[in-house]
Amino acid sequence: MFPYQIPANNERAWFAVFVRTKFERTVGRILSEKGYEAYVPCQYEKRKWMDRIKITEVPLFPNYVFCRFAPEHKLPILTTPDVYSIVGAGKNPTPVPFEEIYAIQRMLQSGVSLEAARVVGAGEPVRVIAGPLKGLEGTVMKIKNSWRLVVTVTLLQRGVAAEISRDDVETVRNDRETRDIRTIGAKQPSI
């Protein structure tokens, strides 16, 4: 399912690097020049100024750059200008699961309209069964009479939301059984 091989023992895993505000792309470029694989997921937004509307590229995860490296070689990352820390527990960096990075890349490549989503609680877990996001798993939320698929970077407690149709998803239960989302919230027959 993934276009790259998942390395064993966290060798060259993805990590979230906490950086100075508005320096995500700069840090990503510097890390790339150092030979690391850096990823700064961005999208275009319309910003209204007093006299005009300008389209600007903004990061989906402000203050964060995703970078692939072996955790024992974190010093060159930490000595990069405008890098504050690597997200983790204490001095040990915590890897971001490959599936979460891949899901964000797929959502950006699909061309659907995205928005940043702050994860505040658990929603209904779903799998997309049709459309440009087919195969992705996430959480469904209803916002202003529309359904959104939220893919989460668990470590950061942040996510990306894309508008979807209820007909394009099915729910996923813990035991991996699925059911149609159109039945969620429907009255169950009493016995």
Summary tags:
7-stranded antiparallel sheet, 191 residues, 16 strands, Alpha-Beta Plaits, disordered N terminus, 2 domains, mainly beta, 5-stranded antiparallel sheet, 41% strand, disordered C terminus
DSSP summary: helix tally? 3
CATH superfamily of the largest domain: NusG, N-terminal domain
Taking all residues together, what is the mean pLDDT?
83
Order of helices and strands: EHEEEEHEEEEHEEEEEEE
How would you sum up this structure, described in words?
This protein is mainly β. It has two domains: 8-96, Alpha-Beta Plaits (2-Layer Sandwich); 99-183, no CATH class. 14% of the residues lie in helices and 41% in strands. It has helices spanning 24-33, 75-78, 98-110; strands spanning 13-19, 37-39, 42-48, 53-59, 64-69, 83-86, 88-89, 92-93, 95-96, 114-118, 124-128, 137-143, 146-153, 158-164, 169-172, 178-180. A hairpin with a 2-residue loop joins strand 12 (137-143) and strand 13. It is globular. It starts with 12 loop residues before the first strand and ends in an 11-residue tail after the last strand.
Give a brief description:
The protein folds into 2 domains: 8-96, NusG, N-terminal domain (Alpha-Beta Plaits); 99-183, no CATH class. It has helices at 24-33, 75-78, 98-110, and strands at 13-19, 37-39, 42-48, 53-59, 64-69, 83-86, 88-89, 92-93, 95-96, 114-118, 124-128, 137-143, 146-153, 158-164, 169-172, 178-180.
Secondary-structure blueprint:
Elements: E1 13-19, H1 24-33, E2 37-39, E3 42-48, E4 53-59, E5 64-69, H2 75-78, E6 83-86, E7 88-89, E8 92-93, E9 95-96, H3 98-110, E10 114-118, E11 124-128, E12 137-143, E13 146-153, E14 158-164, E15 169-172, E16 178-180
Antiparallel strand pairs: 1-5, 1-6, 1-9, 2-5, 3-4, 7-8, 10-14, 11-12, 11-15, 12-13, 13-14, 15-16
